[in-house]
Amino acid sequence: MRNERALADSRLPSLTGLRFVAALLVFFFHLSVEKLYDDGTNPVLSKIFNPAGGVGVSFFFVLSGFVLAWSAKPGRPAGEFLRRRLAKIYPNHLLLWVLTLPLLLLFGEQVAAGSATANLALVQTWFPRLDFFFSVNRPSWSLCCELFFYLMFPLLARFVGRFGRRGTWAVAAAAVAGVLLLPVVAGLLHGGPGMPLDVSHPEADSGVSVRQYWLVYAFPVSRCLEFLLGIAVAKLVKDGAWPRVPVAVATGLLAIGYAAAVVAPVLYGLAALTVIPLTLFVPAVAMADLEGRGSLLRSRSMVWLGEVSFAFYLVHQTVLRIGHDLLGHDRSWNAWTASALAAAFAAVTLLIAWAVYRWWEMPAMRLLTAPRSGGKSIPVASGGPRVRPGPELSRPRPAELAADKD
């Protein structure tokens, strides 16, 4: 039986590789929103890729709770934890805000001072207004949720840490139930204009209101259920209480959940239909790493893509929006030309993301996470671990990689 610190140091490179897959799902969703295709395939693409954005974001939220609970070490000051988390997300957010805002104004988009300020402060998703939570660099709405998660993590970790196995299972089940019930609760709300087509199923659920969409998709308290779920699952894996689910089975269930989300009403397709498959998928991949099983996701190229995925996620929609504007915002192309343009947009996004990661994100992390002393420690939400890492995965990670990849 390994001690808590040894298990927290166990590397989970496949989860890092998966980050890029999740970011790519969001890229494909926003690609379908841009309507590059003129040959009748855009409605099909919109239908297929519409759940992709929700699944990708839901994966990030569950994974965030899992990784933070997994890598938490006894005695780490809460102030140091919060400082490291801010150092991870805010420099990239600030850079993209500074670069994106003038570009949007240059291309004639209207950006109100209030929404831009809220976005800069990462409080935009507390307002049930489309022009607020999707302001400036639109993907940054999820960072507002993540910031709330980080503030809540010490309390949630202490809360989950109070329970034994049965109680932790109850917490996980309650979090899943909350995610499943959110669309039902949102369906009882009325008022607010219908959602524009770029954030809802174009042909299925155009009557969804902004308030309904906000409650299910953007409200930080609602999305914290997925974060709490990740914390509880990490504790169960550490305690040796999580069942061994083959990665292939978890992947198949996730594919079924995704297919259901394609045809479901928009509020259900955002997270409810994929939260259970994601809950099985994340620990299945983590346990495969711990047991030393082979995985393409652990390749150097996939891990590198995972490292730059945060910058890729923040950069991609600005590249798509500005790129399409430069080519002609109302223009569309045949399938071959549009696909070539999509590949070019992805390549440009990846190149910019690498530059941001190499010359901005990592230097900022090193500067802002210099060791300091003092502060109240964060409790670790786990009991006695019973999962043995594979021998090649038991080396401690560098400090900047151990808990800063969520």
TrEMBL record:
Q: Which residues cross the membrane?
A: 12-33, 53-73, 94-120, 140-157, 169-192, 212-233, 245-264, 270-290, 302-323, 335-357
Give start-end positions of Basic and acidic residues composition bias: 394-406
Q: Could you say which enzyme class this protein belongs to? A: transferase
Enzyme Commission number(s): 2.3.-.-
Task: For this UniProt record, give its keywords in alphabetical order, as a comma-separated list.
Answer: Acyltransferase, Membrane, Transferase, Transmembrane, Transmembrane helix
Q: Name one GO molecular function term.
A: acyltransferase activity
Segments forming domain Acyltransferase = 14-358
Q: Name one Pfam family in it.
A: Acyl_transf_3
Region listing for Disordered, in residue ranges? 373-406
- The name on file for this protein is Acyltransferase family protein
- Species of origin: Streptomyces nondiastaticus
- Upper lineage: Bacteria, Bacillati, Actinomycetota, Actinomycetes, Kitasatosporales
